[in-house]
Amino acid sequence: MRILVTGGAGFIGSHFVRGLPGASVTVLDKLTYAGRRANLEGAAHTFVHGDICDAGLLAEVVPGHDVVVNFAAESHVDRSIEGASEFVRSNVLGTQTLLQACLEAGVAKVVQVSTDEVYGTIESGSWTEDAPLAPRSPYAASKAGADLIARSYAVTYGLDVSITRCGNNYGPRQYPEKIIPLFVTRLLRGATVPLYGDGGNVRDWIHVKDHCAGIRLVMDKGEPGEVYHIAGTAELTNLELAGRLLEACGQGWDLVEYVEDRKGHDRRYSLDDAKLRALGYRREIPFEQGLKDTVRWYAGHRGWWAA
Ligand SMILES: NC(=O)c1ccc[n+]([C@@H]2O[C@H](COP(=O)([O-])OP(=O)(O)OC[C@H]3O[C@@H](n4cnc5c(N)ncnc54)[C@H](O)[C@@H]3O)[C@@H](O)[C@H]2O)c1
Ligand SMILES: Cc1cn([C@H]2C[C@H](O)[C@@H](COP(=O)(O)OP(=O)(O)O[C@H]3O[C@H](CO)[C@@H](O)[C@H](O)[C@H]3O)O2)c(=O)[nH]c1=O
C-alpha cells in the first residue's frame, strides 16, 4: 500500500508516519515553523518539500498513492487570532486543492484530520458526530471549512473521504507553543509560565499515539463522508494541568503567572467516541504514564526544543 501523509513533518503527522511500518510512505510538507525533517529521523519515507495549495505539485505527487492522510494545517489558535489569512489559505484552500488532486488521481481513500474545536464550546455533556458546527476562533473556523469541503467531495463526487475529530494531543516533538510543551520547556529551565484567564478552561487530553491509532482505524474501516471522534483520557482544567506539570518538573506555584485571557477562549471541549469504539477502538496510554514519559522526553531532548 502506498500512503501519502501531508503535514507529516509536524507533531502528529510524524508520529503517524512512525506507526506505519511496512507501508510505502511519502511525506509532503511545507516545513513551516512547526515542521522539521528531524521529526522523521529513523522513519522510512520519501520526502517532498511542498505546499498542499500547489495544484501543479500535487498533480505530480498524488498519483500512484492508494491512501492520502491530511495533517497539513496551521494548528495554533493563538496564532490564528494574531492573523487568520494563512489559516484560511492552508487549511481551507489547501484541503480543497488536495481533495481535487485525490479525485483526479483516483485515490481510493482519504482521511481528513480534524478537531473538536469545530463545534465551539460546551458547558456539560459531550458532542456526538452530528452536533452542529459552531467554531469560534479563526483556526476552528478554517478547520470546519475544510471538513465541510471534505464532506462535499464525498457527496458530490463520490470521493471516499472520512473525517476524524480529536481533542488536545500531547507527547514528544510537539512545538513548544501549545500549553504542555510550552510549560514543560519553561519549567525545566526555571522560567515562569502564563496561565490564561482564571485557569478554569477544560481540555480533554490524549496521547498522540492513541490519536494516531484512531486515525489508522478510520483509514482501514471508515465510511465515505463519515465523521469519527477520537476522545481523550483526561479531562482537566488548565489549573489542574498546571499542577501536574509543576509536580512533574519539580517546581512550585510561584512560577505560575495569571495573564490576560485568550480572546474568545472556548471554555470546554468534550467528544463522545462511541462510533469509533464500535469499530474496535481502544485507547492505551493512561494520562499519568503518558505525561511522565513526555516530560522525560523533553528533559532528554533539550537540543530539539532549544533549536
Ligand atoms: N495538536 C492537536 O492537539 C490536534 C488535535 C486535533 C486535530 N489536530 C489537527 O491535526 C493536524 C496536525 O496537527 P499538529 O499538532 O501536528 O500540527 P503541527 O503544527 O505540529 O504540524 C503541521 C504540519 O503541517 C505542515 N504544513 C502547514 N501548512 C502546510 C501547507 N500549506 N502545505 C504543506 N504542509 C503544511 C507544517 O509544516 C507542519 O509540519 C492539523 O490538521 C490539526 O488541525 C491537532
Ligand atoms: C499556550 C497557552 C494555552 N493556555 C490555555 C488555552 C487553552 O485553554 C489550553 C490549551 O491551549 P493550547 O495548547 O493552545 O491548545 P488549544 O487551544 O486547546 O488547541 C489545541 O487542541 C485542539 C484540539 O482541541 C487542536 O485542534 C489544536 O490544533 C491544538 O492547538 O491552555 C494557557 O493558559 N497558557 C498558554 O500559554
UniProtKB/TrEMBL annotation:
Its cofactor is NAD(+). The keyword NAD applies. One of its GO terms (molecular function) is dTDP-glucose 4,6-dehydratase activity. Keywords: Lyase, NAD. Residues 4-294 form the NAD(P)-binding domain. Signal peptide: none annotated. The lineage of its organism: Bacteria, Bacillati, Actinomycetota, Actinomycetes, Streptosporangiales. Its EC number is 4.2.1.46. It comes from the Bacteria. This is dTDP-glucose 4,6-dehydratase.
